[in-house]
Each structure stands twice: as C-alpha cells, then as structure tokens.
Input
Amino acid sequence: MGLTKTKIDWCDFSWNPVWGCLNDCDFCYARKIAKRFGESIYKKEVKFRKKENEDILRKLKDFKPVFLFSQLNREFPSKPSRIFVNSMSDIAFWKIEWMEKVLKRIEKHNEKFKIKNLRFISFEPLLFNEVLEKGFSLNVEWIIIGAQTNPVKPPKKEWVERLILKAKNDKIPVFTKENLDKIYPELSLKEFPE
Output
C-alpha cells in the first residue's frame, strides 16, 4: 500500500511512521485524526507484526509516541513528489532508533530520485507574536504560514506581514496556506524552495 495522498496544499503525500506527541495542545489536528483512525492503524500494525500488542493500541488511543512498522514500509510514489514526513507526531519525542530507521528507508530511494531534506517551519497556527516581538532568526530553507482550523482562528494580519518581511529579507521562500489566503488574499504566496 502506498503513501497517503494528502489535501495539504504544499505537498503531495504524507508519510507517518511515528504517531503521537506529548505536547497535549488543545488545537492539535493530529490528535483528532488519531482518535478517528487509530483503530484501523492498529489493525494494520497487528497484521504487519503478526501479533497483538496492547501497548501500541493504548499509545495510539492516547496519542502517545509510537513507532509503526506498517507505516514505515508503505510503498513510495513512482514519480518525484513532495512528501511530508511526520504530520502525525512531534519529532522532539522520537527515539534515536526511530529516526535511524526512517532515514535508512529514505536512503533506499536516493538512486531513483533526488532526495532533498528541508529544514522548514510551519507557522500554523500562528497564534502569538512573542517571537516576532523579541526578534528572531529564521535558520531554515522554507516557511509555511496558516491559520488555526477547527475552530478557525486567524493570526493578526500584522504578524503575518512581519513574518513575510523577515523571510524576504533572509531570502527564504514563503508558502501561505489556503485557509490564510481566504482571510488575507493580498498576502498570498506560493513559493517553493529550489
């Protein structure tokens, strides 16, 4: 089975060999997805491992970090694509061996495609301007800006403008998500890193 075709507007597929997080954010979309699809992911994992594992089921239900071999071994696309790795967890809570397994899987495809790993920040939701007030450095190759969804909570326009200005000054491409474009169409940018 292949990677998940996504509705995320800046990528083609998502790949989530790890699910779960310890942040417990109120607005987390991934937690909602895990509640909805955790059971079906667990059934796939059990088939892959060929035995029941109550610890994995509990972690999926509680949205705690868990490594999923069934997701790691999903088939990659046959043509070059933008793949978002890790939309269902926070990498800060990954074990080192999980990272090694993911990188090893990616390396298998170096011969077929040009693999580019990007350092980027997705400011979604952009809910506070504390970072913008204190001054900051964007040591990344791309930024994505979006509004909070479910419930929709847009950032202040001046926050978005300041972030875009900072990125432009640092020569960093900016991609604004559709949910932000609807609110501030005049700020819409669809830039991708080279």
Q: What stands out?
A: The chain has a mean pLDDT of 87. The first strand starts at residue 4 and ends at 5. Strands lie at 4-5, 13-15, 18-19, 66-67, 83-85, 120-123, 142-145, 174-176.
